[in-house]
Amino acid sequence: MKSLWLYLMLGIGLLFASCSSYKYNTTRVQNLDFSQYKTYGWLQPVDSLSKNYFTNDISRSNILAAANKELEARGLRYSKENPDILFRYVAIVNNKSRMVYSSPYGWGGYYRPWGWGYGWYGGGPSYPVGKEKYRYAHLIIEAVDRKSNSVVWQARGSGEIRTPEKAINNLPKVVNGIFKEYPLK
Length: 185
Hints:
The protein has 185 residues and is α/β, with parallel strands linked by helices. The chain has a domain at 23-97 and 133-179: Double Stranded RNA Binding Domain. 26% of the residues lie in helices and 35% in strands. The chain contains four helices and seven strands. Strands 1, 2, 3, 4, 5, 6 and 7 form a seven-stranded mixed sheet that branches. A hairpin with a 4-residue loop joins strand 6 (127-145) and strand 7. Helix 2 runs parallel beside helix 4 (171-179). It is elongated, with a radius of gyration of 21 Å. Residues 28-183 form the DUF4136 domain.
C-alpha cells in the first residue's frame, strides 16, 4: 500500500512539473549601477520571423501596459524625449516536436522525455509511439543604454503555447515574471 501511495504521489508531482507554465532567464552587465536610470522609453519591437501570434495590437498593448507598470513600480518614469534607458521586445514562436511514450500497463500514453518510465499504475517500461508537435514561445525584453547604444540587460520568458488567445491573455503574467529579474526591485 505504501508503494502504491508513493507511485501516486510521484505521478501527481510529475504531472504538476510538466504543467509548469513559464521559465525565465536573464543576463546583464554585471558591474552596472541600474539606479542611474531615472527615465525610460520604448524602441520599436524587433521583427520576428516566427508565427504572428504576438504582432497584433492586443499583444502589443498587453506587453507595454504590463511592462510600463513594472518599470514605474521600480521608480522609473516614462519619457519620450531623451530617456536614460530604452526598452524593446521580441516575441518568437517556434514549432517543436517531442517523443510520446506509452506503457503496456495503465491507461494511455504520456510524455516521458527520458524514455523509460512506468504507467499510471502497475509498471513496465514505456515505448515510443510517435511524435507530438507543439508550439513554444519566447518573449525577450532588452534594456539599451541610450548613451552607449548597447544592451545592458536582457530577460526571457519561455513557455508552451496551447492556444494563441490564451498565450496573448497570459502576456502580462509573462512580463511580470520577466521584470522580477530586473536589477532594481
